Amino acid sequence: MKFVISYEPFYKTLIDKGVTEYQLIFKHGFSANILHRMKHGEAITTKTLDTLCFILECKTADVLEYVEDR
Description:
70 residues; two-stranded antiparallel ribbon; 11% strand; globular
């Protein structure tokens, strides 16, 4: 059994908060490269996670989850 980090909760949180990726990049100065990495399931730093939680006013579980690889 293999587990991986999923950013699926992040996209649900964006919808729930009414925030777009465009707003993250141009209003909050968030890196487009990091969003690209997340879309492709690549690792992000805890600093990035902290920044996202601050911007979105959410918990870490609203950004990522540890799930069994499908």
